[in-house]
Amino acid sequence: MIAGLRSPVLHWTGALPVMAVVLLALTWGRSLPLALIVLVSCFLAGAVLAAVHHAEVIAHRVGEPFGSLVLAVAVTIIEVALIVTLMADGGEKSAALARDTVFAAVMITCNGIVGLCLLAGSLQRKVAVFNAEGTGAALAAVTTVAGLSLVLPTFTTSTPGPRFSTPQLIFAALAALVLYGLFVTTQTVRHRDYFLPVTTSGEVISGTDHADPPSARTAMASLGLLALALVAVVGLAKAVSPAIEAGVIAAGLPSSVVGIAIALLVLLPETIAAVRAARRDRVQTSLNLGLGSAMASIGLTIPAVALATVWLPVPLVLGLGASHMVLLALTVTVGTLTVIPGRATPLQGGVHLALLAAYIVLAVSP
């Protein structure tokens, strides 16, 4: 579980985020040779593991479902910074970067994280059990915000191309913010019990794990180190992004693959944390992380990027293409059928992972 809950500053997970930030400062804005790219990639992986550890410490202190929000919101804030930075530097070819990254985040969370967690939970206990009320509410919120932000722009006629006009973009941004606020309120205040883990008999598990919660001082130290680790993750990811883009171009792949790479890097901490929770028979916690991350990714990223268009030199392209809309519709349909029973077998996990695989294949070979 959480490594002894001792002071995070004295643990390797305390030293590594600091070292990663120092490396980020030394390499920022520079063209990196191959040896440095390898070194940066190693520290990037270490920062991801450190972020997972500190997120688990904080989650253990505050309990569910508050703990699931910590990593989701923190990662999304950093994701926004990365998207805006790359759009500011990337010119016209980055106009669809926000759309590609957000949609990749939705597919990775709703199919990748959810599929892996259902598979891990069901293989552990034969049947993965979760709360259908809370999970269904989260899926409904994700579906609505994704439809308003990523599907509607393809069919509007006020502005040429799959783009919103300014009034439409303001509405979509405000709707995303309001729905995200309602989602968080529902999850943490009014219907908190809908998002707590349940036993195989359907009883809510309101207590924490067997280990004593960390002290407030330890949790605050972990919060600061989590912030450092996430800054390092995104900063180092930006440092290696030119190598990623060069590799994508050299391989003759579509530019949307860059958005997938960004989403995979940013969501890696949440994926690891979610799978660990599923293996501890806390499938609901895993689903909170997966669907909560999808909701945060759309509900916070779209408004932030919409605001950033005031000074960004490129237009904001949000509308999905036909194949991506089909994949989104399949994801929503399969997700609904998965949620309704409140329990899942390895089959459901495999179906979600198949949809993610289809998305990646079509992204590489449209």
From TrEMBL:
Keywords: Membrane, Transmembrane, Transmembrane helix
Keyword rRNA-binding: no
Coiled coil ranges: none
Domain called Sodium/calcium exchanger membrane region: residue spans: 34-188, 222-363
Record protein name field: Ionic transporter y4hA
Organism for this UniProt entry: Streptomyces decoyicus
Any Pfam family: Na_Ca_ex
Cell compartments where the protein resides: Membrane
